[in-house]
């Protein structure tokens, strides 16, 4: 399997890679030469508005449709040359459940075991194990159409795991779920990754990407607008600041007079200092407060969240070009 450099001298396997991926439908260019590298055993989140091409990327990487051009490898296999080997290495859970509502949850699992050519004994063992893991034992012999939305999504993912894939594509897996069911699904995804599974996730829930993803790419107009960790992406957006609040009006006035480029709130006795929220800048502010003998009663760091990143990168306004290390 190819490797990716995480840090100096540190090479880790790459589970999924795409270079120059392009796809058009008629005269509509959906993916315009995107590049992605997903280290094994990590969660990679692909964000973008409706119609950005997220599902198209998943379908291409999981061999459901073909790319117009690009070099694509999944699980060490060339997607164009050996799609069957790719299919054997992956599991896919789409936006819409593949569960058959007319049969029971257990029967859905056994059907999937048959498709993976497991023996009846092995199929029953794997089905029972996964139904227990996903807390579906009590409902196993009930028609799947009677399941709640969260139960159907858990069953769908359990069916995906019958073949023990090491790479899983989850295309908006929590769409339509209530907050509790969504958090339950997050826990399942974390367990999978702790077992060494690689998860390629598309989602419109920015909190979901922030909670789960080791790396995030933002797709806009068929291109990757930015890529990096959640913290790296947040630092691309202006508006971060450190807020100092004072209870002593004299200390507040002294600090306001000495500091430059601050926003004052005379009523709240607070000052906002532009900052990217980095440890270096925070240490500089604390050192300055110590050197001047000024004591703030409260210091809070405010950084842009992924909502800010999403709207800035997918809206009409373009950000300045991000640093080279975040583009790769």
How are the SSEs placed, and which strands pair?
Blueprint: E1 3-7, E2 10-25, E3 28-39, E4 43-47, H1 54-61, E5 69-74, E6 77-78, H2 83-89, E7 90-93, H3 105-115, H4 120-133, H5 149-160, E8 167-171, H6 179-194, E9 198-202, H7 206-212, E10 215-220, E11 223-228, H8 230-234, E12 241-245, H9 249-258, E13 263-265, E14 270-274, H10 279-292, E15 298-302, H11 306-314, H12 324-327
Parallel strand pairs: 4-9, 4-10, 7-8, 8-9
Antiparallel strand pairs: 1-2, 2-3, 2-5, 5-6, 10-11, 12-14, 12-15, 13-14
Helix pairs in contact: 3-4, 3-5
Strand order of the largest sheet: 7-8-9-4-10-11
Structural Rg: 24 Å
Low-confidence stretches: 4-10, 317-328
What structural category arises from helix and sheet content? alpha/beta
Main sheet specs = 6 strands, mixed
Q: How much strand?
A: 25-35%
Order of helices and strands: EEEEHEEHEHHHEHEHEEHEHEEHEHH
Q: Percent helix among the residues?
A: 25-40%
* CATH domain class name of the largest domain: Alpha Beta
Q: What is the correct CATH architecture of the largest domain?
A: 3-Layer(aba) Sandwich
CATH fold descriptor of the largest domain:
Rossmann fold
Shape estimate: elongated
Tell me the number of helical segments per DSSP (H or I, 4 or more residues long). 12
How many β strands by DSSP?
15
CATH superfamily of the largest domain: P-loop containing nucleotide triphosphate hydrolases
Mean pLDDT: 87
